[in-house]
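Regression test attached.
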Amino acid sequence: MALLTPEDLENIKKQLERADTAVSKVTRLNVKEVCKDLYGTSPHYESVGIVPVTSGNGIIGNFSDSLKVITDYFKFDSFVTEMPDVSGYYEAVESGAEIILMADDNTFLAHNLTNGKIGNNQPCTGIIYADIVSRYRNADSKDVLVLGLGKVGFPGAEHLVNKGFNVYGCDPEKSLMKKAIFKLGITPFDLKTPKKFSMIFEATPCADTIPENVLAEKCLVSTPGIPCGLSRELQEKYNVDLLMEPLGIGTASMLYSVL
Ligand code: NAI
Ligand code: 0TF
């Protein structure tokens, strides 16, 4: 998994506010409303214990503090534990946490201790970014291009298929392409094909993945991928609406999924 850096998370509140404004502009719903519609839930100041985890590459500067900012923004009542790891988990539960948020290098989870529900950040992120693209108010058809069919992209593609969209997908990993074709029925797409899309969901860890020939004038690129798959030059040239945010929207999706 590509890991976040402290720099990715600088000014997370500003990044989240800007992204929320972008979501409202392109869908007419804000992130809370999208989450409520997706999961049928709403927070009521549930207590969230955020536990720093030292295993693997260790604690990421700004990660737990950013989760505190994000959970406050979405109206949860959160705290970061003083201790990390197992001691932090114990501290969180002893302090009354109803939901535990914690991440190692492979898994970022939300576990609701009151109802047993558990959420994984990768599918929850894929689902909400895909859902947002599916609500694009300037969409010219039901065709959506999905770049990257990994742990974030595949659940996003599945969500779009379930919502009745025509999903065109690509991933250089042949086994993932096969899985998406046979399990989801997506149409394999060669990025050199001169077909334009007004909705693009990008879920890769690479820059500049989106070529010029697929961009319709005034399209939406919804991407959790870091770094951004769309160059600044193409964004300006095609007047692209861009949704990209490093942590908050996916975390909100995961939290609402366990309420
Ligand atoms: P993954 O490694 O499971 O999947 C990425 C896929 O992209 C791979 O299958 C790879 O073959 C494919 N890919 C690479 N270059 C490509 C290209 N040019 N065209 C099409 N496909 C290409 O990674 P995962 O977990 O799905 O994460 C994807 C991205 O999302 C990462 O950058 C990760 O850091 C980010 N992420 C962001 C979150 C957020 O809240 N913003 C939350 C979770 C992940
Ligand atoms: O960096 C990542 C994921 C995050 C997905 C959300 N954008 N790409 N995961 C590593 C998190 C490690 C956190 C660390 N153990 C800590 O500070 O607790």
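Expected vs. actual: identical. The longest strand covers residues 215-222.
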